[in-house]
């Protein structure tokens, strides 16, 4: 959501997006998400173009937020949830990187329900995302999210929470 807010709040980024993806990609200062989703997740080259436009800005903004929070020194740890954590290079700013893995079957089922997308749309998005195999060396903690919310909570409390408390 932060990336979306940054894009929609930055006229220079919006201009770049419009120039790259066409006039109809930005309407009244707002991203045409439906059109962009269709373009970006049906062609890896298009997704790379968008990432080239947005990742540097996102990385700089998150780094700024983290620095401010560390200066305040009020927080034991800071959690950054980002779908593009690895693609954007944000993972380099983190003390620990957690990968929450889910099967394509579970992902399709959940996202179809949540976003009212077709199975094909969800599979296209899933297939364009970073695969665990490509970033394993940068993952400190790997947890599975193929069970229930209760199982995920138990795994988090057993695996992730102790690691965070040791930071």
Automatic annotation (TrEMBL):
Q: What is its EC number?
A: 2.7.1.24
Q: Which UniProt keywords apply?
A: ATP-binding, Kinase, Nucleotide-binding, Transferase
Q: Does the keyword Amino-acid biosynthesis apply?
A: no
One GO cellular component this record assigns the protein to is: cytoplasm
An example of a GO molecular function for this protein is:
ATP binding
Coiled coil regions in record: none
Sorted alphabetically, the Gene Ontology BP terms of this entry are: coenzyme A biosynthetic process
Against InterPro entries, the record matches this protein to:
Depp_CoAkinase, P-loop_NTPase
Q: What is this protein called?
A: Dephospho-CoA kinase
Organism of this sequence:
Muiribacterium halophilum
């Amino acid at each position: 959501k932060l990336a979306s807010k940054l894009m929609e709040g930055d006229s220079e980024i919006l201009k770049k997006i419009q120039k790259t993806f066409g006039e109809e990609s930005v309407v009244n200062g707002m991203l045409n998400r439906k059109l962009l989703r269709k373009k970006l997740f049906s062609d890896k080259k298009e997704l790379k173009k968008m990432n080239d436009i947005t990742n540097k800005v996102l990385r700089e903004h998150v780094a700024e937020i983290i620095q401010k929070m560390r200066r305040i020194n009020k927080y034991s740890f800071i959690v950054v949830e980002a779908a593009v954590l690895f693609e954007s290079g944000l993972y380099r700013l983190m003390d620990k990187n957690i990968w929450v893995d889910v099967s394509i079957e579970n992902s399709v089922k959940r996202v179809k329900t949540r976003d009212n997308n077709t199975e094909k749309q969800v599979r296209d998005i899933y297939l364009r995302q970073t695969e665990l195999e490509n970033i394993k060396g940068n993952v400190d903690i790997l947890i599975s999210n193929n069970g229930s919310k209760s199982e995920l909570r138990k795994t988090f409390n057993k695996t992730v929470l102790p690691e965070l408390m040791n930071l």
